[in-house]
Structure formats: structure tokens, C-alpha cells
Amino acid sequence: MHKDKAKEFYMLADEYCCFLEENVITADTVPHLIEMLMRLYISAMDLPETEPETNESSPGISDAVSVRLSEQIPAAYWEVFDPYVDEDPVCGDLIDDLSDIAADLTKGMREYETGRYGNAVFEWKHGFCSHWGQHVVDALRALHAVRAR
Predict the structure, then answer these.
(1) pLDDT number for residue 2
(2) Cβ neighbours of residue 27 under 8 Å, at least 6 residues apart?
(3) When comparing pLDDT for 140 and 149, which is higher?
(4) Which partner from 45, 69, 88, 123 sits 20 to 30 angstroms from 9, CA to CA?
(5) Which helix (H) or strand (E) holds 24?
(6) DSSP E strand stretches across 47-89
(7) What are the C-alpha distances in Å from 149 to residues 6, 36, 144?
(8) Looking at the predicted structure, is the pLDDT value of residue 1 above 90?
(9) How far is CA 73 from CA 4, 31, 49, 92, 130, in A?
(10) For the chain, domain boundaries
């Protein structure tokens, strides 16, 4: 079961990372980026809760993904960090959001590529719940505002 879920999620993660590496984000590519982020989010929710199969991890390789925005898309945006706390807005960074998502996805992709499917699912699910899932939500809000202009 882990292998099937891992393969499906790997394909989505790879599509997202390749898209970022190969494209400058423009107003024309924002709808496709929104769609990919939504598919990743929904698919991550469907990943099973699991523990890593091994304590080994894939060799550390730079997780940096180059994110390039066109001049028409500002990197900085304002948001309320916790919608249940009355506090001032904070400045978010779309480049940081998109690159952090890719970096976290890449960790699981390396596990998948070495055949450790359970480890891959664990990396993706754990990262989704603890880090990159919030970046998806933040990026979607900023990208929706760009699209709605």
C-alpha cells in the first residue's frame, strides 16, 4: 500500500519541483501552480500515518530549488499568522513558501528513489503536518490574490 501511495505522491512532487525549476512564475502560470499546490495538499491529506521503515536516511543533497517570480508577482505579502489570535499581520514571502515546499518534498523524493517507500511517505506526511502544509496554504492565498487582480 505504501508503494502505491508513494508512487502517486512522488509523481505530483516531481511535477511541482520540475515546474519550479523550469519556469518563471508569471500571471499566466499562476493557475497551473495553484492547481499543483491544491493537488499536493489533497494528496498529502490522504497519505497514511506511518513510521519510517529504517533509521537510515538518504545522503544529504542540497534541497534548494530556484524559484523565480516575474516582476508582476510580488514576493512579499501580508497575512495573519494565526487566524484565531488577535495580532498584527506579518509579512510572508512567496519565494520562501514555494522553495520550502519543494525542499520538504525533495526529502521524501530521495527516500522514494532509494526504494524506501515507507520512509518517503513518512517524510511527506510528517513534513505536511509540521511545515510545508502551512506554506501551501499561505502560498495559495497569495497566489489567489495575484490571480484575482
Answers:
(1) 66
(2) 70, 72, 73, 146, 147, 149
(3) 140
(4) 69
(5) strand 24-25
(6) 68-69, 76-79
(7) 37, 20, 9
(8) no
(9) 37, 13, 36, 13, 27
(10) 2-51+74-148
Radius of gyration of the chain (CA): 16
Instruction: Confirm if 6 and 50 have CB atoms less than 8 A apart.
Output: no
Residue appearing with cell numbers 510572508: 92
Cell of 148: 484575482
23 vs 59 pLDDT, higher one: 23
The grid coordinates of residue 122 equal 513518512
Scan for cell 495538499, then name that residue: 41
Look up the CATH superfamily of 2-51+74-148.
Protein of unknown function DUF5063 (1.20.120.1550)
